[in-house]
Amino acid sequence: MLLKNDRLPELLQSLSAEQRVYVPSNTSNTSAGVSRFALYGTGVEPDFELVNTTMPPKDLLFPQTQKMYRYGFDTEGLPFINAQHDGDEVLLFGIRSCDARSIECMDDVFLTKGFVDEFYQTRREKLITVALGCSHVAETCFCDSMGLDANRAPSADVQLTAVSDGYEVHAQTEKGTTALEAWRPFLTETAAPEASPSVPNVQCTLKVDMTGIKEKLDLMFDHPLWDEISKKCITCGTCTYVCPTCHCFDISQENKMNAGERFRCWDSCMFSAYTEMAGNHNPRAEKMPRVRQRFMHKLCFFEDRYGKSLCVGCGRCVEKCPVALDITMLIDQIGALELGAAGQPGATESVTEGGSHVAH
């Protein structure tokens, strides 16, 4: 099936009449110059040439601020508590492979290991994902080093691949097959060989070698490297807010008269108060343990629990960190280490500032 370029606006207009459609855009009224997945409609112009939006699409499943419950006393003085759920179906149109993988990671966190987050689950069940293969990459992209293919997202419901005059369209899930029924008036039946790709399959120029990284990190909890790299960090939390897989949150409530609301909002392991407990005890009061936790979670702890890295190689943190604390350079540094039996530096090893990139 082929979606020609001149039919795409018609398709989006038709779909947005039936469901909420989110597209990558620089023109959202709420983005203030920051690209994001915005609700398609008046004043929002899709930009499918964006390699990655500044803000990831995770807030469609895990909002930055999310109401969870309303509670209080009704007019008869009886107590009540009502969960707050979003009932709208959402079509996420034009995500890249890295963001599709990030949704897999979020699914692991919120839907597996014996616990189901009902607020995430409600949104996830009503989400349809349409992935778009990359026609080019940014200099900060390294998804193929993390085991992804920039041209294909196997977990997406529908996959779009750029061809000379539009996009090849393939359903990859049952949900995707059902969704494409509404697309049929805008699609052209064509044999795949007749549609020649407009661009070759792209590869990232920034490369890291993940071979043995997790195994080394298993031994490096007390390694002096963490002291060295944490000196640069200013704990601003930018990396966690632009990351498509960071999922830390805080829960609070607001009370008014006889009723109130409980809500959760994004938090960051980079913030000193994140691990503060009753009695002012804080196991990560200092900066170094917080920096260590972020990278160990991304590259080691998450893989222990879920069998995959929590880094998807989107490069957002590489691009936006104000002090250039680059996860790809850290991976290079770890790869270059020769560890002793206890995970400490070997006799000839020293902690250095950089690694060896193919490109950056």
Tell me what the structure shows.
- The chain is of the alpha/beta class.
- It has a domain at 2-62 and 86-194.
- The protein contains ten helices and eleven strands.
- It has a seven-stranded mixed β-sheet. A four-stranded antiparallel β-sheet has the order 5-4-11-10, with no helix packed on it.
| Shape estimate | globular
Average pLDDT: 90
Low-confidence stretches: 192-199, 347-356
SSE-based structural type = alpha/beta
Radius of gyration: 23 Å
Q: Helix amount, in percent? A: 25-40%
Give, in spatial order, the strands making up the sheet with the most strands. 1-9-8-7-6-2-3
Distance between the termini: 37 Å
Secondary structure: number of strands: 11
Our count of helices gives 10
Please write the string of helix (H) and strand (E) elements: EHEEEEEHHEEEHHHHEEHHH
Strand content: 15-25%
Main sheet record: 7 strands, mixed
Quick overview of this protein structure:
This protein is an alpha/beta fold and 360 residues long. 25% of the residues lie in helices and 19% in strands. It contains ten helices and eleven strands.
